[in-house]
């Protein structure tokens, strides 16, 4: 049986996916606070586990090594209580990791246009974004959008919306 919280939202985990810069971490903190749940940022979990930034991991071992560590973090995540999880933008490359997430909660794809994302990402080359060498942001987005849509239970269009408006859309969709 699924427990319903005081806001009427089902007390199950919520997993946020989307491109770097869309606001997964920011909205994840707001959603976790609103729902009274633990918040987990898998990018931070990776960095803590490895003792390096995402970019340092890629510089030393390549982007596929970063994706491997990301999959391990996704598979090791424990869902003893419901939580809000902000995944790294490349989490959707791990079918096993996404299956684990979907077993324990609903996947919310936070969507934003390429132009809006470009306005937010000023350090594409140094941000630790798991991508093939020389891959453009546009090409990366084209590749990932299909995967985000594949795994999403809910899609939230964040275009020209404040974090508070996106939060409300998520709360409404999760009821």
TrEMBL record:
Pathway participation: Metabolic intermediate biosynthesis; chorismate biosynthesis; chorismate from D-erythrose 4-phosphate and phosphoenolpyruvate: step 5/7
| InterPro entries named among the record's database cross-references | P-loop_NTPase, Shikimate/glucono_kinase, Shikimate_kinase/TSH1
Q: Where does ATP bind?
A: 21-26, 127
Keywords from UniProt, A to Z, are: Amino-acid biosynthesis, Aromatic amino acid biosynthesis, ATP-binding, Cytoplasm, Kinase, Magnesium, Metal-binding, Nucleotide-binding, Transferase
Which sites bind substrate? Answer: 43, 67, 89, 144
EC annotation from Swiss-Prot or TrEMBL: 2.7.1.71
Q: Does the keyword ATP-binding apply?
A: yes
Q: Does the keyword Cell division apply?
A: no
Which EC class does it fall in? transferase
Q: Which reaction does it catalyse?
A: shikimate + ATP = 3-phosphoshikimate + ADP + H(+)
Cofactor(s) needed: Mg(2+)
* Residues that bind Mg(2+): 25
Among Gene3D superfamilies, the record links this protein to: P-loop containing nucleotide triphosphate hydrolases
Q: How is the cofactor bound?
A: Binds 1 Mg(2+) ion per subunit.
Q: Where in the cell is it found?
A: Cytoplasm
Assembly mode: Monomer.
What does it do?
Answer: Catalyzes the specific phosphorylation of the 3-hydroxyl group of shikimic acid using ATP as a cosubstrate.
Q: Belongs to which family?
A: Belongs to the shikimate kinase family.
Q: Could you tell me what this protein is called?
A: Shikimate kinase
What species is given as this protein's source? Sessilibacter corallicola
């Amino acid at each position: 049986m699924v427990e319903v919280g005081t806001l009427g939202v089902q007390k199950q985990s919520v997993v946020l996916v989307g491109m770097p810069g869309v606001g997964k971490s920011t909205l994840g903190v707001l959603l976790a606070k609103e729902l009274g749940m633990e918040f987990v940022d898998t990018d931070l979990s990776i960095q803590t586990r490895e003792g390096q930034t995402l970019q340092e991991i890629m510089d030393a071992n390549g982007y596929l090594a970063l994706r491997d560590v990301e999959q391990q973090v996704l598979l090791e995540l424990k869902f003893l209580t419901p939580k809000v999880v902000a995944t790294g933008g490349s989490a959707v490359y791990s079918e096993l990791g996404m299956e684990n997430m979907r077993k324990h909660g609903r996947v919310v794809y936070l969507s934003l246009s390429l132009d809006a994302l470009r306005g937010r990402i000023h350090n594409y080359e140094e941000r630790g974004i798991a991508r093939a060498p020389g891959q453009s942001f546009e090409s990366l987005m084209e590749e990932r959008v299909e995967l985000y849509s594949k795994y999403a239970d809910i899609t939230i269009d964040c275009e020209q919306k404040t974090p508070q408006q996106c939060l409300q859309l998520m709360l409404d969709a999760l009821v």
